[in-house]
């Protein structure tokens, strides 16, 4: 079975501070991992995926198979980063992502 | 940029009533999904639909739920006899082909069962 754990329900930081949103997964094979974001009153949308190794809006995430983690990081948080962040995993032959419960990021001015 | 659209944005219904939640996926997408999110909880997978049939469903998707693609554009979720615990945000999503195709979500329908 595949599972995604986001241990923090809420993360509160000040503008300019580094941010790390934690995501751990449980899956025996090679997973595909994603971060989705939901800004206030907007739809869930893809932020980034591990396979692309990209940086979007200053965010990066590295897949660490040894620690089974895919933490989302940004060195300097901005107020507009305030949103709900969901880690998601696709494993095996399934194309259906499993979502974590989400972490609410609040960036204070 | 094309979007997934969902209607209505908010639906209030009485326990035991039937509701139909509507979605228009992105036109060239082939995979369609329904997820739900009970307030304060995680986004949960309900069902996926491909080639005019259900391809996967979760334990949540029991006999009171059904999905349909009645025409070439709409994708509906029907809840036959709503219960209080069906109150949630229901998200429709679609994706193209390929394992790396991300899901494109609609804005969701907030269902309130009283």
Kindly provide the radius of gyration of chain A, computed on alpha-carbon positions and rounded to a whole number of angstroms.
Answer: 13 Å
Largest interface: A-B, 21 and 25 residues
Main structural class of chain A: mainly beta
- How many strands appear in the DSSP assignment of chain B? 11
Strand content of chain A: 35-45%
Mean pLDDT across the residues of chain A is: 91
Question: How do the helices and strands follow one another from N- to C-terminus of chain B?
Answer: EEEEEEEEEEE
Query: Which assembly state applies to the chains in this document?
Result: heterodimer
**What would the average pLDDT of chain B be, to the nearest integer?**
92
The percent of residues in helical segments of chain B reads under 10%
Helix content of chain A: under 10%
Structural account:
The complex is a heterodimer of chains A (109) and B (114). In chain A, β5 (32-38) and β6 (45-49) form a beta hairpin. Chain A is mainly beta and 109 residues long. The mean pLDDT of chain A is 91. Chain A has strands spanning 3-5, 10-14, 19-21, 24-26, 32-38, 45-49, 60-61, 72-74, 83-90, 98-99, 103-108. Chain A is built from no helices and eleven strands. Chain B has strands at 5-7, 10-13, 19-24, 31-37, 43-50, 53-57, 65-68, 75-79, 88-95, 104-105, 109-113. With 114 residues, chain B is an all-beta fold. In chain B, strands 2, 4, 5, 6, 9, 10 and 11 form a seven-stranded mixed β-sheet that branches. Chains A and B meet through β5, β6 and β10 of A and β4, β5, β9 and β10 of B.
């Amino acid at each position: 079975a595949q599972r995604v754990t986001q241990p923090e329900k809420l993360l509160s930081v000040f503008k300019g501070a580094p941010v790390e949103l934690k995501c751990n997964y449980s899956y025996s094979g090679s997973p595909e991992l994603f971060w989705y974001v939901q800004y206030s009153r907007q739809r869930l949308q893809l932020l980034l995926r591990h396979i692309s190794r990209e940086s979007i809006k200053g965010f990066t995430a590295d897949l660490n198979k040894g620690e089974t983690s895919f933490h989302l990081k940004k060195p300097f948080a901005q107020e507009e980063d305030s949103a709900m962040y969901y880690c998601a995993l696709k494993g095996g032959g399934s194309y259906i992502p499993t979502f974590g419960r989400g972490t609410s990021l609040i960036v204070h001015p | 940029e094309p979007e997934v659209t969902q209607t209505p944005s908010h639906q209030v219904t009485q326990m035991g009533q039937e509701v139909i939640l509507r979605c228009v996926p992105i036109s060239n997408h082939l995979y369609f999904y329904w997820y739900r999110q009970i307030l304060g909880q995680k986004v949960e997978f309900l069902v996926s639909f491909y080639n005019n049939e259900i391809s996967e469903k979760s334990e949540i998707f029991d006999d009171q739920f059904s999905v349909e693609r009645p025409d070439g554009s709409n994708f509906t979720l029907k809840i036959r006899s709503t219960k209080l615990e069906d109150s949630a945000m229901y998200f429709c999503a679609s994706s193209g082909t390929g394992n790396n195709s991300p899901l494109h979500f609609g804005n969701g329908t907030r269902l309130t069962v009283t």
